[in-house]
């Protein structure tokens, strides 16, 4: 960004239209990084103040899948049953979005998002992809901050290695957790559990 703006300063009329897209892209990436770091800092201090309430995890998952309806490279599908969780709504939305974004980056052709409820009433979310999967030895490390298992990729692709760390911190802040398993699709499955609602009202 410094080099681009220095170059544009020499001849703004000619150079700025050329370098502006690069500068804006890097500003977006830096803004996203700062937002992620601030969120992790709040979670570290347990200062994420969004109120917890019963949320429809299935509605959140379907809305996220709908966001990718026009995706050409990967088919993103939802298959599940109604599932309610005790969690701040922004927390549940961020968990789903981060996991779907991650799955799309690693999928070959397909991502499947599923919601259900276990026998104890806890909400369950799974996000499957048909990519290369994650070696068992890396399944805990993948949740560490700034870890990217695909270091061979260019920095312009993917994120900074914070997305999955945020998922785990958010899930645990709501009393749940996340783990990695083998996916029936052949790649990785990220499975999230969130507590059942404290209130007894129906949908």
TrEMBL record:
Keywords: ATP-binding, Kinase, Nucleotide-binding, Transferase, Two-component regulatory system. Residues 1-198 form the Histidine kinase domain. The keyword Disulfide bond does not apply. It catalyses: ATP + protein L-histidine = ADP + protein N-phospho-L-histidine. GO terms for molecular function: ATP binding. Residues 173-203 are annotated as: Disordered. Its EC number is 2.7.13.3. Pfam families: HATPase_c. Transmembrane segments: none annotated. This is histidine kinase. The lineage of its organism: Bacteria, Bacillati, Actinomycetota, Actinomycetes, Micrococcales.
């Amino acid at each position: 960004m410094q080099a681009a703006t220095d170059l544009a300063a020499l001849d703004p009329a000619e150079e700025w239209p050329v370098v502006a897209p690069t500068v804006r892209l890097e500003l977006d990436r830096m803004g996203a990084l700062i937002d992620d770091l601030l969120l992790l800092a709040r979670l570290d201090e347990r200062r994420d103040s969004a109120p917890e309430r019963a949320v429809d995890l299935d509605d959140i998952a379907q809305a996220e899948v709908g966001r990718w309806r026009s995706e050409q490279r990967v088919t993103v599908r939802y298959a599940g049953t109604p599932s309610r969780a005790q969690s701040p709504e922004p927390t549940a939305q961020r968990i789903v979005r981060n996991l779907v974004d991650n799955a799309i980056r690693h999928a070959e052709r397909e991502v499947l998002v599923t919601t259900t409820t276990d026998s104890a009433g806890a909400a369950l979310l799974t996000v499957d992809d048909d990519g290369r999967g994650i070696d068992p030895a890396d399944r805990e490390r993948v949740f560490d901050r700034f870890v990217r298992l695909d270091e061979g990729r260019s920095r312009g692709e993917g994120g900074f290695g914070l997305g999955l760390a945020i998922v785990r911190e958010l899930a645990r802040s709501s009393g749940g957790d996340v783990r990695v398993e083998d996916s029936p699709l052949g790649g990785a499955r990220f499975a999230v559990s969130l507590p059942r609602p404290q209130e007894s009202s129906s949908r």
